[in-house]
Write a structure and sequence with these properties.
The protein is of the alpha/beta class and 116 residues long. It has helices at residues 23-38, 56-71, 83-91, 104-112, and strands at residues 3-7, 13-17, 19-21, 43-47, 51-54, 75-79. It has a four-stranded mixed β-sheet with strand order 1-2-4-6, with helices on both faces. A two-stranded parallel ribbon has the order 3-5. The relative contact order is 0.19.
């Protein structure tokens, strides 16, 4: 899996997984976020705009990342969710659990305010 990382001027890191979140790629995503946390990075946006498919391992990774960031009182927003990914999240009734925004701008604003 290819994962792009961008940083904006506000020290917010935008993580963009590519293609799908499956068992292999979701582990990569979790490891990446944990390494970033070790480096004292506190503000995250996960953009799923290029993720075409997500399975239970991918959802599990998002839950793990979200709960870890919440426990540390760091900031997180998730954006760029397409219909198949939204359907998977809604199927297990987790849409209210994740800090989901409709656009990158909204995600940046949410993370600036403290996000999750």
């Amino acid at each position: 899996m290819n994962i792009k990382i961008l940083k904006n001027d506000d020290e917010i890191y935008i993580i963009e997984p590519q293609n799908e979140l499956n068992l292999y790629s979701s582990n990569q995503l979790k490891e990446l976020v944990m390494k970033m946390i070790e480096l004292k990075i506190e503000r995250f946006i996960i953009s799923l705009k290029k993720v075409e498919n997500v399975n239970s391992a991918g959802i599990g990774a998002l839950i793990y990342i979200s709960s870890t960031i919440k426990k540390l009182n760091f900031s997180l927003a998730i954006t760029g969710i397409n219909k198949p990914v939204e359907k998977a999240i809604n199927a297990i009734r987790l849409s209210g659990y994740f800090p989901i925004t409709g656009s990158l701008r909204e995600a940046v604003d949410l993370v600036r305010q403290g996000g999750v």
